[in-house]
From TrEMBL, chains A, B:
Entry similarity comment: Belongs to the FCHO family.
Organism name: Buteo japonicus
Every F-BAR domain range: 1-229
Keyword Protein transport: no
Protein's name according to its UniProt entry: F-BAR domain-containing protein
Gene Ontology terms: cellular component: clathrin-coated pit; clathrin-coated vesicle; plasma membrane; presynapse
Length: 318, 318
């Protein structure tokens, strides 16, 4: 009966264990979400930037796997609590069912004590009778002792018989009860094993999902080649694929002279790309980037490095 | 050049990311160790107790996997820092190497400005000359304008030639430098990819180890059958495999009567197992447990349930 109660303690312990595990997983998941967000604070410049997206996505997915685990562990805890409540009902019912056994136990205890006492009494009376005989006491005394001895013998024999009857009932009740407790214990352990199986299945599934997230990360990294990163960077920073042509002598347009000189927005020469903001410091960077990007693109298989002079666009000079 | 510096920032970011991940794993590992220890606080009574050992071992191993990960991530962070230091050296060296290119950039900037000005001047002088002609100015004025126009044309032509020369040097330097920066960028990205590969390999290995811990847990749970748990419990709580025999009437030993009655330690009857402490409350539990354990053992295949009466051991009665 005590062990049956320990079964309920084990159920509570299991719920505690799962709850604690869920708490750990939740903390881990939250930290992972924070880590994924911290990627936003990293430099958003340079060739490496697209790689952070891969890290971010992967870290978010890891966080999500662990929060899935938390959700499923919490469902499992509810199941464990429900089982714990069922256990208490079973215990109450069982306590009533085995009350007859408790009586049988008490009976055998009292009959055993009585039997022991009657045996001691019989033994004492028997020895007393012998002593009187040996010491040559009066016949009256010896007879009196013999009567007492006879009475003690009868009582002793009665208790031997009574004991046998009580023992038989005790054994039957105990066997039944032991069987009942064993059945309860088996059902309990089977239920606990089911819960643990559910727990390990959940953990195993999430573990597989985490493995998939890792695989995806590895694949994404494999697909993110050095070439593709440089290509992306060149495309975002580059000023065009064609090398600016030479600047040639342009004859003055004498016809326009009659209307006088109007300040016009004109496309300045062929090196427009790097000349637009020639007076601010950006121009150095820009021209470096422009040629840098062209050189990159060339190496990346774009072999149409245009070395032909580009004629000034006369149409725009009008 | 700026992008090259961003490469170093990315390296620092990567180190930060790995450090943060290591911190998360460390917290997780510590929580798992704590969870494994908390198992000690669970009830140490009942049939379920051996299962907690499986939980404890498994949780300790999980903690150990994650602390292994922490150790390896910390090693990786050292590697990343080392690489970061190497990067700075490369940058310093490169800055010196490309100083000639900066000069070429400045040259093309100033020549472009000069060319633009000379063209505007040429255009203005040319228009002025035409205007004077059309407006019928004096020959002297027209001649003067023609001289100025000729001079502006020569200057303009000179700058067109100069520009071509400077542009050629600029293009050569820029191509070389772009190639150098591209090489540096490629080497950098390759190194970053190597570090990330090392990171994902580590995570993958630990993930496999964690999977093994889960498998071991599942196997241990499968091997821990309900029968074996009940068997273990019965063995620890049981009082023996034989059912106590009946208590029979014992003839008084008259020969001992002569020496008088001495209080002797005698083996009390056959039900000794449950009678030893018959007056304390434990006896009820003990007798229950005794028969409970016997009933269990019977069901577990021990079919030698001894129903034969055990004779009181007369040898001990002497």
């Amino acid at each position: 009966y005590h062990n049956m109660k320990h079964g309920h303690l084990s159920t509570k312990d299991l719920a505690d264990f799962i709850r604690e595990r869920a708490t750990i997983e939740e903390a881990y998941s939250k930290s992972m979400t924070k880590l994924a967000k911290s990627v936003n604070n990293y430099t958003q410049l340079g060739t490496f930037v697209p790689v952070w997206d891969i890290f971010k996505t992967s870290t978010e997915k890891l966080a999500s796997c662990h929060s899935d685990l938390v959700r499923r562990l919490q469902e499992l805890i509810k199941e464990v609590h429900k089982y714990g409540d069922e256990q208490i009902k079973t215990y109450k019912k069982t306590k009533e069912d085995v009350s007859g056994t408790l009586e049988a136990v008490q009976n055998i205890q009292s009959i055993t004590q009585a039997l022991q006492k009657s045996k001691e009494n019989y033994s004492a009376k028997c020895v007393e009778q012998e002593r009187l005989k040996k010491e040559g006491a009066t016949q009256r005394e010896v007879d009196k002792a013999a009567v007492k001895s006879k009475k003690a013998t009868d009582t002793y024999k009665l208790y031997v018989e009574k004991y046998a009857a009580v023992k038989s009932v005790f054994e039957q009740k105990m066997t039944e009860t032991a069987q009942k407790f064993q059945d309860i214990e088996e059902t309990h352990l089977l239920r606990m094993k089911e819960i643990i199986e559910s727990l390990s299945n959940t953990i195993k599934e999430i573990h597989l999902q985490i493995g998939e997230v890792h695989e995806e990360f590895i694949n994404n990294m494999t697909n993110t080649t050095v070439e593709s990163l440089i290509q992306k960077f060149a495309e975002s920073k580059g000023t065009g694929k064609e090398r600016p042509g030479p600047i040639e002598f342009e004859e003055c347009n004498k016809s326009s002279a009659v209307e006088g000189i109007k300040p016009r927005k004109r496309k300045p020469f062929g090196l427009s790309g790097i000349m637009k903001k020639e007076k601010d410091t950006e121009s150095v960077e820009r021209s470096l980037n422009q040629l840098l990007s062209r050189a990159k693109q060339t190496r990346l298989g774009e072999n149409e490095f245009n070395l032909l002079p580009i004629k000034p666009e006369k149409g725009n000079e009008k």
